[in-house]
Design brief:
The complex is a heterodimer of chains A (601) and B (47). Chain A is of the alpha+beta class. Helices cover 56% and strands 7% of the residues of chain A. Classes of the chains: A alpha+beta (601), B mainly alpha (47). Chains A and B meet through α19, α20, β4 and β7 of A and α1 and β1 of B. β7 of chain A pairs parallel with β1 of chain B.
Chain lengths: 601, 47
């Protein structure tokens, strides 16, 4: 790992590592060891063999690369290029292993990244910063909601900030920054998070020349093009409707209101994904303690990272907090903004906007607590304060432990899912698959009754057309946030009218209907009229149009070639960066080996 | 010092988890969110 001159030189601004924490006898493995231990404590049963299926998080053993994976399906590219990356990776690694790697990478990267930012403040501050970056409501609630790609972006952000500081102070490190931007760009909101927080730090001021800054700016945008282009090609252009803006606004987790909830990193719209302790006064205690420490630590952050870096990060954090709180306190205005500004639909789930604040508070609170324990002369008392600083966040969010109380347990898919995939892989005819029941989410017995996005579209080796509306329970009723796939809309209206799907399937390019019979709502018998049952295993069944029925092939949207070419160019560029880095590392190791051999002689 | 801190950390974390479990804040691995009586499965609840 390269040393950041700015970060390391700032060590002289403090009392130095040994004086700061008193951990002089400890090995350098203390922080990584704690981060790994805490990550395992957080994930618990999620690390058992199998798949963690919770809300939007769906992994399957093998996911195919389909037009929708790169944003050329009917809906907005919300999981693009996430699905394409998973599809490519699951050709060489089982989806369960990939998911385990992702789940572990999130807390470990977040913890080590924030610890790196406060490296010059000593191991005590590193331990506290890492703990707060891992053990907080933002990460826990988003994990339960299944937003793993956004959390990867969250975890990449402190690393991107460190790389940006390196570019700013030395002119080097741009490729690493591009790499972190690419990791964040698996989903649109993650891509924006990393770029907005980190890239300006490298571009505004600093020692890098204009040519290098220009290349960096272009590259940072380029790695986001895989989702930007499909979004621009979609007729909705990323705007949202008022129902979505209202339903997915920040939610208060107690009588203290949305603003205080947001300061603590909580406020996810979905009450079912929020740990129970967040609704109790101990969450208020945690918020007050950590925020007070963060205020005390901000001057240290400014000295350590520089006024420009600390100022920009803080400004973005406050802006994100203000926008998130506005979604709760001024919902009408917020809905107007979300529905009228192209692309603003990305911010309709406003809790996401708290990511920069949560990371900032993790770092500044650690520095604030450090100021406190530096005033204590007794080494044992100082160490006790550090241990307390590490354990209090855990104690005040105890139900995050062990896979958030078992809500992230791994399970196995029943055998019929594998058999269903094989059935479709064996079919010679062209055509897409309609998925019933007409509901976006499922509750499976094998998944302990937890709500999860229907896994069928990711299991299927063909393009599927499924319900994409989002029904949300609110105030005793249900608000349905409409979807954005036109073909899904046609099928939904056909079912609402009580007409057979076979009437519209040929013109929509669909040949089969997959029925998950144990799920709600049970399809009406007339929905399957005109179709023939061709396969069944357990609670999965497949119906097909009569063999002679011609099915219209669905053309890719205009401009699809541009998306494909740009995706390939981005992939090629990232591959070149990785290969170049590997060659440089290899050359460096060869030089070190040669030097050692010469010394031995 | 390491021999002292390790057990302290383990004891505190263990006590927190045990306390949380006793008061029902931490549930077992089979914890299930409340069932929603709706015609279809809802994405979540803002209540």
């Amino acid at each position: 790992m390269a040393t950041d001159p700015q970060l390391s030189s700032d060590a002289t601004d403090h009392d130095g590592r040994r004086q700061a924490s008193g951990w002089s006898g400890w090995s350098g493995w203390l922080v990584p060891g704690w981060v790994v231990l805490l990550s395992m404590l957080l994930l618990g049963p999620a690390l058992a063999p199998g798949f963690v299926l919770t809300y939007d998080m769906v992994f399957v053993p093998r996911q195919d690369l389909l037009p929708a994976s790169i944003g050329l399906g009917g809906g907005l590219p919300r999981a693009v290029p996430q699905d394409a990356v998973v599809a490519v990776l699951t050709t060489v690694i089982d989806g369960a292993w990939l998911q385990h790697a992702v789940l572990l990478a999130i807390p470990i990267l977040a913890g080590m990244g924030t610890a790196r930012l406060v490296r010059s403040a000593g191991r005590g501050a590193q331990l506290v910063a890492a703990t707060l970056a891992i053990w907080n409501p933002f990460l826990v609630e988003r994990l339960v909601q299944g937003h793993w790609a956004l959390l990867l972006a969250y975890a990449a952000t402190p690393w991107a900030i460190a790389s940006a500081i390196r570019v700013r102070t030395t002119g080097a490190g741009a490729t690493a920054l591009i790499g972190w931007c690419a990791l964040g760009a698996l989903v649109p909101s993650g891509g924006i998070l990393v770029v907005v927080v980190a890239v300006p730090l490298a571009l505004i001021g600093g020692v890098a020349d204009a040519k290098r800054k220009g290349a960096l700016a272009v590259s940072a945008i380029a790695v986001n093009l895989p989702w930007i282009l499909p979004a621009l090609l979609h007729p909705d252009e990323g705007s949202a409707d008022a129902a979505g803006a209202s339903v997915f606004a920040l939610r208060s987790e107690g009588p203290w209101g949305a603003a205080v909830t947001a300061l603590g990193g909580g406020g996810l719209w979905n009450a079912d994904a929020v740990p129970a302790s967040r609704e109790t006064p101990i969450s208020l205690v945690l918020t007050v303690l950590v925020f007070a420490a963060a205020i005390a630590g901000w001057p240290s952050l400014r000295r350590m990272l520089g006024r420009a870096v600390a100022g920009w990060w803080t400004a973005i954090a406050i802006l994100g907090w203000a926008m998130a709180v506005a979604s709760a306190l001024a919902p009408t205005v917020w809905a107007d903004v979300i529905t009228s500004v192209p692309g603003a639909g990305l911010a309709r789930d406003s809790h996401k906007l708290l990511a920069p604040l949560v990371l900032l508070i993790a770092v500044t609170a650690a520095l604030g607590l450090r100021r406190g324990w530096q005033r204590v002369s007794d080494v044992t008392a100082r160490r006790s304060l550090i241990v307390a600083g590490v354990l209090i966040p855990i104690a005040l969010l105890p139900d995050a432990a062990l896979g958030v109380g078992g809500r992230l347990s791994a399970v196995d898919y029943p055998a019929q899912w594998h058999q269903m995939r094989q059935f479709f892989a064996d079919q010679q005819e062209s055509g897409d698959v309609v998925v019933l029941p007409w509901s976006t989410f499922r509750v499976f017995d094998f998944n302990a009754g937890r709500t999860v996005l229907d896994p069928a579209p990711r299991w299927l080796p063909r393009t599927s057309i499924a319900a994409d509306a989002l029904p949300v329970s609110r105030g005793g009723g249900i608000v349905v946030v409409p979807g954005d796939d036109p073909r899904s809309g046609v099928l939904g209206r056909t079912l609402d009218d009580g007409r057979p799907l076979s009437e519209v399937m040929p013109e929509l390019g669909a040949r089969w209907v997959l029925v998950e019979s144990a799920q709600r709502p049970e399809p009406e018998p007339q929905a399957l009229a005109g179709l023939e049952p061709v396969w069944q295993e357990g609670d999965l069944a497949v119906w097909e149009l009569p063999v002679a029925t011609p099915v219209d092939a669905q053309p890719l949207p205009s401009g699809a070639w541009l998306v494909i070419v740009v995706d390939l160019l981005v992939l090629l560029g990232l591959a070149m960066i990785i290969v170049t880095r590997l060659v440089m590392v290899g050359a460096g190791m060869t030089r070190i080996g040669s030097s050692k051999r010469r010394r031995r002689r | 010092m390491g021999a002292v801190i390790g057990p302290i950390v383990a004891a505190v974390v263990g006590a927190v988890l045990a306390g949380g479990a006793a008061f029902g804040i931490i549930s077992s691995q089979t914890a299930v969110p409340p069932t929603v009586d709706a015609p279809y499965v809802v994405y979540g609840s803002t209540n």
